[in-house]
Amino acid sequence: MEFRELSGQRIRLINLSIEYLHDIHEYSIMSQFYVHLEYSPFKDLEETRAFLNKLFKRSDEITGHYWLIYHILEKKVIGTIGLLDIDSRKGAAELAYGLSPNFWGMGFFSEALNLVINWYFSLDGTYRLFIKTAVNNTNSIKAAKNLGFEKEGVLRGYYLDGKTSQRWDAALLSLLRSDIIK
Prior knowledge:
The chain has five helices and eight strands; from the N terminus they run E-E-H-H-E-E-E-H-E-H-E-E-H. It is α+β, with helices and mostly antiparallel strands. The protein has one domain (about 5-180): 3-Layer(aba) Sandwich (Aminopeptidase), CATH 3.40.630. It has an eight-stranded mixed sheet with strand order 1-2-3-4-5-6-8-7, with helices on both faces. Helix 3 (about 110-120) links the parallel strand 5 (about 90-100) and strand 6. Helix 1 (about 20-30) packs across helix 2. The two termini are about 25 Å apart.
């Protein structure tokens, strides 16, 4: 798979770079960002750096790749989006993402998701994309459904909240190449 930067109307999906550490840190310390995540807000810049380094390790371009979501007008990174567990034999990959709460509800997630969908399904041998998200993450589920994803089911007790030790369910949504053709 050959990964490249992708351009939309308001955003560009750019390669990971330590240059944007402070942009990522800006939203990584917001408690609102973690409403549907298992983790607590980052306490300092070093935790954000460790997270970014983890994304670099996951972006081996064989089993995973992450992009930064770069806001063209604001000239800053407002989130991340990536493919995980890429299975080239099955033509399948999981989409993972995070967007600054300052940009929720403005269509940036849908724009980023659409860029990845169009790029991914333009490649030979790709068949399936899937998303796992908290069942109560209704905005994320709605945006994915608006782009053609279908809810396949619920992964019961999938998430373990590191803040409260409580478990909650994940919704599993998928998009097949054949769904795009419909």
